[in-house]
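Subject: design request, 229 residues
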């Protein structure tokens, strides 16, 4: 059977400028499936998986992997069941993952974003594969005005893979998903397929990117290892 891993944030906390619980799940894989693995299927919604939760954070509880308090970058608090990061400057925060990138995986984050309306053309949201030396990273973010933007960031500018005018509500949570299957990396918002591209190996970490005056509330972060039934 083909092995797949669904993953989220775990490990060491880093801020910069510039358990195992078993459960069964149905993975809704939208987009074109591998015809050699699953001939005749037009989407992944017909494929079932069992999953083992590798890591999860929050769900009304503080996590030792994420700070509480304040530093030069932001304030961090758990309030009314939400983990809230309020930025004092543009920055990102990431956690290291004990991640085997030779197998398939998924990263999920439930995020609610608030922007500083005085700052146009800014980006907040999910980041992963951050290169700590140069602060290069992959981004799955929302731009001011709410278009969804997927691409890379080199510490000063963004390179676009995909952009859509699909609107998100800044007052609601949305689930950001990055899923790697074989040599393909797919992106979903609230289980809706947006974009896929060839998989690029990345540094084993993920986190969030914030703009000065903005905030991100995190409902949950979860990592699952899954296997097709």
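Subject: RE: design request

Done. Sequence follows.
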């Amino acid at each position: 059977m083909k092995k797949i891993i669904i993953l989220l944030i775990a490990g060491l906390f880093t801020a910069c400028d510039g358990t195992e619980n078993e459960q069964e799940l149905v993975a809704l894989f939208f987009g074109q499936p591998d015809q050699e693995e699953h001939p005749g299927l037009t989407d992944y919604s017909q494929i079932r998986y069992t999953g083992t939760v590798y890591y999860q954070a929050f769900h009304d509880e503080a996590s030792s992997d994420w700070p509480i308090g304040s530093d030069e970058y932001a304030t961090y608090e758990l309030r009314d069941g939400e983990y809230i990061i309020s930025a004092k400057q543009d920055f990102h925060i990431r956690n290291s993952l004990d991640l085997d990138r030779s197998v398939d995986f998924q990263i999920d984050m439930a995020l609610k974003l608030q922007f500083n309306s005085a700052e146009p053309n800014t980006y907040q949201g999910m980041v992963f594969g951050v290169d700590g030396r140069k602060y290069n990273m992959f981004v799955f973010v929302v731009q001011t005005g709410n278009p969804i933007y997927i691409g890379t960031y080199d510490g000063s500018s963004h390179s676009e893979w995909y952009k859509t005018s699909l609107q998100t509500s800044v007052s609601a949570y949305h689930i950001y998903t990055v899923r790697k299957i074989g040599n393909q990396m797919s992106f979903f918002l609230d289980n809706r397929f947006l974009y896929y591209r060839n998989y690029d190996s990345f540094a084993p970490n993920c986190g969030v990117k914030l703009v000065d005056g903005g905030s991100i509330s995190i409902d949950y972060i979860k990592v699952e290892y899954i296997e097709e039934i």
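The chain has a mean pLDDT of 75.
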